[in-house]
């Protein structure tokens, strides 16, 4: 029998076999990345399509109350009605509270105002549910193996707090992420608006064009601009469309853009020059935020430097000298 020569090995593994497997995984990853890049879908397509259908219906004066399509446009359901009735009977549903939750939903990107009733209902129900589950898990089953009564009380209070503040924290977290994404793309959007205004496009067409151009890079901002363009085309007062944009986005820069657009519409001032000034200001603010983060970096890196880098550096530098001194002392003894 002939002995088959095996390839080179490293730590007991065949180098050729491992290299072949890694090359196959890399090729598979490249194929998946190309497939994901080719088959990417526009996140605004479905939303813009529904809004265009709604605009056509409003222009034609079609009112389809009582049908399923009208119910989907109004976005009311039996669940929200039942929750609203239950909260009304318990006297926990106030109009000011409802409006505040609706604005938080708008900041988080949820268009359906009826969800505010669900959020308020969850804020009333979740503390009871979390409290019961936490009580049995902490006191009866001892899931977390807590010995002290004080820590058990703190864990129970944490469950109640999480149940009450959970929906609000979720909305705030999502709204902050969405606001940051919009803030990143706002200077580029204003530059495109300036170009569109100088090219002679109307405000409606300029917003629509910017939404199409920035839809893939900044989907949140493109969605807001597309919705504003649609509202500008069918609302009686154009000021209302701009105010709706400021209502949906919790950002002072957007409110400044809205104020500029309203004043331009009212007094007829040049739109391109005003937007150019705003774009320059927003770019300076973005650069200042980047410089602020860079200035904070040395202070942030101090703790990891002391805990992780300096001990290793001392070991590398002083380790050989310590070993040499130890060997010398042992030899003398």
Number of strands: 2
Q: What can be said about the biggest beta sheet?
A: 2 strands, antiparallel
**Helix count?**
12
Global outline? extended
Uncertain runs: 62-76
Measured between the Cα atoms of the first and last residue, the distance is 60 Å
Radius of gyration: 30 Å
What strand line-up does the widest sheet have? 1-2
Order of helices and strands: EEHHHHHHHHHHHH
Protein structure class: mainly alpha
Q: What is the arithmetic mean of pLDDT?
A: 79
The percentage of residues in β strands lies in under 5%
- Helix share, percent: over 70%
Task: Write a structural description.
By secondary structure, this protein is mainly alpha-helical. It is about 80% helix and about 0% strand. The protein is built from twelve helices and two strands; from the N terminus they run ββαααααααααααα. It has helices at about 15-40, 45-60, 70-75, 80-90, 95-110, 115-140, 150-200, 205-215, 220-235, 240-250, 250-265, 270-330, and strands at about 10, 15. It has a two-stranded antiparallel ribbon with strand order 1-2. The longest helix is centred in the C-terminal third of the chain and has 62 residues, at about 270-330. The radius of gyration is 30 Å and the shape is extended. It starts with 8 loop residues before the first strand and ends with a helix. The model is unreliable at about 60-75 (pLDDT under 50).
